[in-house]
UniProtKB/TrEMBL annotation:
This is Uncharacterized protein LOC107492671.
Amino acid sequence: MMPLTKLLSRTVSSCFSSSNGRPFAMAAKALQHCRYSSAAAQVAESETEALKDYADYRRSLYGHITHKALLVDAVGTLVLPSQPMAQIYRTIGEKYGVEYSEDEILHRYRRAYSQPWGKSRLRYVNDGRPFWQYIVSYSTGCSDSQYFEELYNYYMTDKAWHLCDPEAEKVFNALRKSGVKLAVVSNFDTRLRPVLRALNCENWFDAVAVSAEVAAEKPNPTIFLKACELLGVNPEDAVHVGDDRRNDVWGARDAGCDAWLWGSDVHSFKEVAQRIGVQV
């Protein structure tokens, strides 16, 4: 690879020998690019060093681990829908007269879901049926009660969901053996527990904090504080992992917890465990 000084020298020389009348501009642009690249590398190196220093500081508090507890978001982090929502709404709805296309169902779903839920400050209260009846009816144009029940019950089964990380069980077992407590923290109705049981993962966790039961939805700090209370740890002892920057990262930090963004800060539960200081 050519040394940077020689590369710059050749670039500048070629600029001055060019006939386009803009030698100085070309040379300046090359030099500026190198400065930006160097600055970006220095920032990345500084961030890496800061993370290492922070991890070392946490381990000085707790021994070989950085946190006493791991809080995990459900949908988008622990579990994922097995089929697109609009496809399921359309497929189940055909025998009930649903005629909207999947694209139209998705568009109407997003519009309905983004609107304030006027009957409550919470979307999910207890089993969440009133909220979901509104969503399904608006999304599909079908208010048939049998259709709603079939769709509602489908999302309590292992057909509807699958684990995001196939190594999750092995990682969580290793974390618990190392003394790290685990909890699910989710904006969900009371169907979350049946979903976890259907996926055979409820016993992986020491606690489950569901917004419908806590009466607080992320990013409200209350739900994170409740999870810490259930685990018997202080908020500063816990790290939360989730895929939504606002709900998961900002909400957890407002509660006093550490937080990592799934898909950005961490990409697998094995990586989460390694950052905590547990080898899998």
